[in-house]
Amino acid sequence: MDDQSGQFAGEFTGHEEVQLLRQLVEGQHEQESTLESVADLLRDMLGRFDRTIDALQTISTNLSTFLADWEAANTEPSNPATSAVLILKGTDMSGAITVDTTNETVTLGFVDDHGDTNASPPAAASGAALVVTFASDNESVVTVATDGTNPLQGDISVLAEGTANISATLAYADGTPVVEADGVTPFPAPAAVAVTVSAGAAVGDDLVLSV
Questions:
Q1: How many CA atoms lie within 13 A of 153 on its CB side?
Q2: Dihedral through CA 32, CA 34, CA 40, CA 46, nearest 10?
């Protein structure tokens, strides 16, 4: 390069516009480098996050297995039921309710030959579901219908003062008879429970005049 060309190049590179363009290019390179570093950092964080999630899932699986094994080892197996009992509002005594009662229920429980109330319900050899039908012998006083979510519970509706007996019959959905664990002995129906409906709370006073 001759002196004139060098002088021209020097003058050109010394212009403010050229210097500004050079700074912009260099700044862009720095920004690209910074963005790439940030991207690398994010990729590394995501990788660590994925490994953490995998580790937590493994721990959860192992914990579930441990709990299932522990419950199996520490839960006493229930004996097969030999009888059933109807329970009103958590007791096996006759119920006393009023015409204002709206949440009375009756539940069918099962008892084994030792008197334990955690017995397993009878099960059909075919696998058919156990169907419980509740009934009231005085439907002018109370009616009872199987609960929509608990097939072993009857929901009682109070209609008037009086007394009624609540009963339940057991059957399998496929029509086969309900028998005890020996497969021969007919399973006994639970004893009926009595319900007494009395007047509700007073809503006012009546003045009666007599002559």
A1: 10
A2: -110
> Quick one: DSSP state of residue 87?
E
CB 96 within 8 A of CB 76: no
DSSP secondary structure string for all residues of 21-56: HHHHHHHHHHHHHHHHHHHHHHHHHHHHHHHHHHHH
Tokens for 202, please give them: 């007073």
Q: How far apart are CA 101 and CA 37, in angstroms?
A: 72
Q: Strands 193-198 and 95-98, how do they pair? A: parallel
Measured in residues, the chain has a length of 211
Q: How many C-beta atoms surround the C-beta of residue 11 within 10 A?
A: 10
Residues of the chain with pLDDT under 70: 1-32, 74-78, 90-95, 201-211
Element (H, E) at 72: helix 16-74
Dihedral pair phi/psi, residue 66, rounded to 5°:
-60, -45
Q: Which residue has the tokens 């099962």?
A: 110
- Tens of pLDDT, residue by residue over 97-117, are 888 888 899 999 999 888 888
Separation between Cα atoms, residue 93 and residue 192, nearest integer Å: 11
CA atoms in the 13 A half-sphere facing the CB of 126: 12
Answer yes or no: pTM beyond 0.85: no
Exposed/middle/buried for residue 158 (C-beta within 10 Å: 0-12, 13-18, 19+): buried
